[in-house]
Amino acid sequence: MNDRLIGRAGFLGLLGAGVAGLFFAKDLTGAVDRLVPKQVSSVVPTSGWRIYTIADTMPDIRPAAYRLTVEGLAGKPASFTLDDLKAMPRADQVSDFHCVTGWSVDDVRWGGVRISDVLERVAPAKSVTSLRFVSAEEPYEDSLTLEQALLPDVMLAYEMNRGLISRPHGAPVRLVMPRMYGYKSVKWVTRIELRAEGLPGYWERHGYDVDAWVGDSNGL
Amino acid sequence: MSVSPTAAPARIHRFTVTERLLHWTHASGFLVMLATGLILYVPSLSTWISRRNLVKNVHIWTAVAWAAAIVLIVVFGNRRRLLEDWREAESFDRDDRRWLRGKRVRQGKFNAGQKVNVIVTVAFALLFALSGFFLWLGERNHTFLLPGAGALHDVLTFVSVALLVGHLYLALIHPSTRHALRGITTGEVDEAWAARHHAKWVEAERAGPRPL
User: Fold this and answer.
1) Set of chain A residues whose Cβ sits within 8 Å of the Cβ of B149
2) Which of A102, A148, B60, B92 has the fewest CB within 10 Å, making it most exposed?
3) The pTM of the whole model exceeds 0.90
4) Phi/psi of residue A36, nearest 5 degrees
5) Which residues pair with A80 in a beta bridge?
6) Nearest residue of chain B to residue A58 (CA atoms)
7) How many Å apart are CA A103 and CA B150, to the nearest integer?
């Protein structure tokens, strides 16, 4: 056997496996994650949350100072405190969270309010077709159509996994839209604008799909 | 304690400026990208240092500088020596194969474990650059968003950190191997040490200086 073939084969084999990984490694990490015990994956996350932000500083909103302003095409535009939201009918759900960059977190427990319970308090105009969710993290925003926002598993969440939502996950209130990639689930939501036509969100201005259905958008 | 004067031990030249520069350029780029990468990746660190844009820019521009510096060193440095090293690293002779099975047989300029490390490091550097490029491009244009780019970048990081820990242990702590650090910093090692660890190489060097 040619001695140099061994090293060359190893080198090319690594490169080939790596290039294949560019296309298939997503499925592989899921398998790895199931094999690695929880104690290990909590120290070195093989999958799980990543904290993505776009601004220089992460919003730090005290719950007592929080206001959710709902305005635009509304007969009774209003501003809600966190207690106001908690006084509305409570919604609970367990749903998966998928990021467009390839990671997912399964079985996240959310607590909050449905969009319909907020809307019925501001008398939306008949012409409303789109809801624009504006983040305290400027200039982050994203929009859902009215129909999408009223899907049964969409909510404004103030609890995550049985505790208050933490600052990196969008405290005190974030949008949860499990059927779409995470960039639609705006964190630190402080304003909802009711509109007659949609606006592209932050990532959509960078070419990402407006209708970010999981498994059926962004070429994935 | 008194130190008795002894003759300076004979030294043998192991690494040229090009080899050392390549090693330390790769090492410093890797460490900066590891530190900034962990801040971007580990949630508690991302939260603690929330200036994601700044950290991301440092990570990306370090990558550009690292890749450019490596290309410059390879193109304008001692190419002949680098090629020799690469040929040596790729070649696993009978002794190397026995060494990998745990037999402490005579070794060349690099032992078989070091050869594996060279091959993995070069392959990983290329794959890091490739997957990182697609992560960068995919954020700007979702046509180039590859499903495994992030996962590949992660896996490369995990394996690299494990290799780095082993590398640092052998280079800084393990008594019989840590003398090698002198070679990659000053270029020279004790001839007696080299004769124990790299016997075939020392013999070839003694047989006659090669033209460089």
Assistant:
1) 22, 25, 102
2) B60
3) no
4) -75, 130
5) A68
6) B50
7) 8
